[in-house]
Amino acid sequence: MRILFVHQDHCLYGASRSLLGLIEQLRQKGHASQVLLPRDGPICEVLERRGIPFAIRRWRVWTTPDGFPRIHGVLSACKTLVLNRLYVKRAMDVCREFRPDIVHTNCSRTAFGSMLARRLGVPHTWHFREFLAGPYSSGGRFSFGRKASFAWIRGTSRAVVLVSHAVRREFRKYLGALPAYVVHDGVMSLEEMEAASGIPLPAMPPFTLALVGRFDPCKQPLVALEAVRLLRDRGAELKMLVGGWGQREDVEKVMSYIEEHGLESQVELMGFLDDVAGLFARSHAMVMPSLCDAFGRVTAEAMAYGRPVLGAAAGANPELVTDGVNGYLFRAGDPHDLAEKIKLLMRDPAELQQMSRNAADTARERYTDEQCADSMEAIFLSVLRDHKQGKR
User: Is the pTM here over 0.90, yes or no?
Assistant: First the structure.
């Protein structure tokens, strides 16, 4: 089987890392993959180093930012449709050389892969990795609106893959009879997971939390910082390691909050991290205050390292975090409730150790690269069988 992955993310965020793990596993199963990207970026170096074929051909997304005037979004989408027809022609040289059996668009922000598959006469599948509009919006929406966009999706695809049941619930009524599969991302191989879960919890005090992710309002970093401040003011010995970065104004808000509340001794800003192993080795638990995570790769990674997760009860967090088992859920946006849940972990080392083991067990049972690849392979093969038999 030859799979062309149309991948929007040229950086090394969660979708890219999951794709890399999937391709490695598919290669071990004897399948060939090629990645098509809209621009150069950090992922290209990794693809080249791993010997994964890739090409860069321009295309446009069919989403616009939340708050963008609707009429401007529709006009932008019309322009996108016209230009992407031209860009499809420019990408045909890559496709003719690779000769894919199936095209898989690895996010919902572009329809380019579906246009490419139609031109090639091969089946197309779609991966939904984000909430678009709605209460858990990650900051964008379909430019043509959900109804029109999903009419296109249903008409051009053989199946959709969704990274969580939360995403499936969000889009269920628009999918109709289109086959829809929930496949959790893999975050590392089983072998890597066994090694990661063997890293012991560090000594206390201080009780050390990890916070990983972009600095933006959707991710709610200030909620985590406020919880640390509340506990610090009550005399708790704790520290927070922060891995991530963001737009300048969002970074400035985080740094200003730390300075204004005198949290320099409690908060260590580590910047963007290519590897989170060192951060989790120094941590006892992770905080996930995000309102918009459609899966939460870093949540699953923390569990793989045996770190319980304190997650906001929003997005897909309740799907990953079982309250009182592998972590705690707190009221989304409420630093006081988060502080209380942190105290629960701090007060009982035996319970912390048990939750650590439970978190590692959860990751091994649900989030390995092997499990993800097995599921994706089965979906691709099913789609190809139906295509060859002339089924819709």
Answer: yes
